[in-house]
Please model this.
Amino acid sequence: MKIAYYFILILFCWSCSSDASDGDATTPTDDDAMTVTNPLLDFTVPSNFPDATYSIAQNPPTEKGFELGKKLFYDGQLASDGVVSCGFCHIQSFSFTHHTHITSHGVDGQIGTRNAQPLHNLAFMNEFTWDGAATFLDTQPIIPITAEVEMNETVSNVLSKLSADDDYPTLFAEAFGSEGVSADRMFKALSQFMVMMVSANSKYDKWERGEAVTFTDQEHAGRAVFNTKCASCHAGTLQTDQSYRNNGLPIDPVYNDIGRERVTGLSTDNRKFKVPSLRNIEITFPYMHDGRLGTLEDVLDFYTDGMVDSPTLDDQFRRPDGTFGLDISPEEKVQLIAFLKTLTDNDFIEDRRFAEF
Model:
């Protein structure tokens, strides 16, 4: 049994059933929820992207649903202190991560154990969080909302606060076509906001689509190094194969994070973490699940000289001579970083649709 996911599933089922009077009206696919006053938004899969994994048909983003999700995303009422919102740790100018702390900080200054992940292209992901504890985008917010070191709240308390708010009952009715503040609607609205966060207009994307951009010699050389030494994990247009791997990080004595094993209970998953997407990697520092590395140079130095062995270390990092790491020369590191910077999507980072009010 996947312990963490089982816990999330129980919470989500409970929260969805907590407002049984809503009936079918809780779904944003009701005809009343998509009228001329609440038009559907255009969710378009970029031509160089794979198909979305999130079922847009089951929760199609609407103008009012998106606006509600955005308001919820930036609202501290989702936390017990009324301050720590989703946007507190996920800041747009940093591709919806943060730079202030190595790991997330929650209510009352409590310190989490993991680095806030960037939010982009979530509609194309199979699982969420560093260990894959959430397998469905609509359920993912339950984790930070209920975590003591993050938002330290309960779903029922959040709903009570939203129901008593002067604005939210009307906003929920406008977004979903009938009255009712429910967990199902809250999470669907958040997903409508987040699935629209598509980052697909970097220099790399334009080059991949054959648009009128030109790579420098350094960028071309870096792409060749990347394809040879990095693309087996950071694969495809999404820049991740969405697998879980142990990349040889030394154990941090403070956190001693067991990674994916916390979800599956399998010792073979010990210290494995989800391979992150490298999109916007230039601005999503600090790096690794615990934010221990501050620069891209630090990351590449780690991959050549900093790995340690363990039973679950990914085999591709084992050298024939019994040592560990990737063979990347100093010149290749410079070239790699030049290429990685082509993955920065300034249009997404500056998109006012996602900006805090």
